[in-house]
């Protein structure tokens, strides 16, 4: 049986992903990854040896985490097609015991970003940053921060086929209510554009990057998802309950949550030095 990917197969795979209630971003990534492999295959019959060769070629240009992500996409396509014999193993990765401190946002840097947004008069960005960091929500979930949710002190979020409740602390509820009143937003989504549409991740990402120089923060640290990481590390530092944190973040696996709470090498160094085992 010839195994050559056609446009019709990709369309059916996309429809299946939609029925599985995958997010738009996930579907786009899966299709992009499969198309990249299809280009590599050059219309030839696909077998496991070809997929292994493709994996090896990816390792020459991408880091292991990215390669594993792309392999997961094409494995999913193969399983959908019933081509299980073409699936290949992902690369083994040794779990990091600490994160790269050059990439992780600190609380002090977060405060500087908020202060800079305030000083520049960008109230919406200031409150978006505080909302993500104080609730741990994804940037795509800001649409659930509505006038009604703020009045109740909680937002019901639906993402990736799951529903969870996000608590909104009193201080945040107060400032968001005042913000909505000033902008005469009486119902619905609070963070909207001048046209009345919910702000998107691209706008937020761009606006956050614009704060970096004035806030004296490395631009590589400044993106919405890093605020979610800061929330996770701060929460875990107080609660030490990874299962509860996983529920709050909406993670299906605690292994995913572990990635969020890895501390920096400098913190590990201080703890090791406090052991005072050098005589």
Mean pLDDT over all positions? 89
Query: Are there runs of 5+ residues with pLDDT below 50, and where?
Result: none
Number of helices: 14
| Helix percentage | 55-70%
| Percentage of residues in DSSP E strands | under 5%
Alpha carbon gap, first and last residue:
69 Å
Gyration radius over CA: 22 Å
Major pleated sheet: 2 strands, antiparallel
Give the strand line-up of the largest sheet. 1-2
Number of strands: 2
Given the helix and strand composition, which structural class is it? mainly alpha
What order do the helices and strands follow? HHHHHHHEEHHHHHHH
The backbone outline, from C-alpha atoms, is globular
Q: Can you give me a brief rundown of this structure?
A:
This protein has 14 helices and two strands. It has helices spanning 7-19, 24-41, 48-59, 64-81, 107-119, 123-135, 147-152, 170-182, 201-209, 212-215, 224-239, 242-249, 254-260, 265-274, and strands at 154-159, 162-167.
Task: Describe this entry's structure for a reader.
With 279 residues, the protein is mostly helical. Helix content is 57%, strand content 4%. The chain has 14 helices and two strands; from the N terminus they run H-H-H-H-H-H-H-E-E-H-H-H-H-H-H-H. The chain has helices at residues 7-19, 24-41, 48-59, 64-81, 107-119, 123-135, 147-152, 170-182, 201-209, 212-215, 224-239, 242-249, 254-260, 265-274; strands at residues 154-159, 162-167. It has a two-stranded antiparallel sheet with strand order 1-2. A hairpin with a 2-residue loop joins strand 1 (154-159) and strand 2. The termini are far apart. The model has no long low-confidence stretch (mean pLDDT 89).
């Amino acid at each position: 049986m010839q195994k050559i990917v056609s446009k019709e197969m990709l369309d059916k795979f996309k429809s299946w992903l939609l029925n599985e209630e995958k997010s738009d971003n996930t579907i786009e990534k899966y299709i992009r990854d499969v198309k990249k492999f299809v280009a590599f295959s050059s219309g030839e019959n696909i077998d496991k040896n070809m997929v292994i060769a493709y994996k090896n070629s990816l390792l020459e240009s991408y880091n292991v985490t990215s390669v594993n992500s792309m392999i997961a996409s094409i494995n999913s396509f193969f399983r959908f097609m019933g081509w299980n014999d073409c699936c290949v193993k992902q690369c083994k990765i040794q779990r990091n015991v600490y994160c790269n401190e050059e990439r992780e946002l600190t609380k002090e840097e977060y405060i500087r970003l908020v202060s800079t947004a305030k000083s520049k008069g960008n109230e919406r960005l200031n409150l978006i940053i505080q909302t993500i960091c104080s609730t741990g929500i994804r940037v795509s979930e800001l649409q659930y921060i509505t006038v009604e949710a703020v009045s109740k002190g909680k937002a019901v979020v639906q993402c990736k086929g799951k529903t969870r409740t996000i608590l909104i602390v009193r201080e945040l509820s107060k400032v968001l209510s005042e913000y909505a009143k000033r902008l005469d937003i009486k119902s619905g989504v609070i963070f909207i554009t001048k046209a009345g549409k919910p702000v998107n991740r691209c706008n937020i990402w761009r606006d956050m990057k614009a704060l970096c120089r004035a806030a004296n923060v490395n631009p590589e640290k400044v993106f919405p998802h890093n605020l979610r990481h800061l929330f996770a590390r701060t929460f875990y530092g107080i609660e030490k309950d990874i299962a509860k944190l996983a529920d709050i973040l909406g993670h299906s696996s605690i292994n995913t949550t572990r990635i969020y709470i890895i501390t920096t090498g400098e913190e590990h160094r201080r703890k090791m030095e406090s052991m005072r085992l050098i005589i």
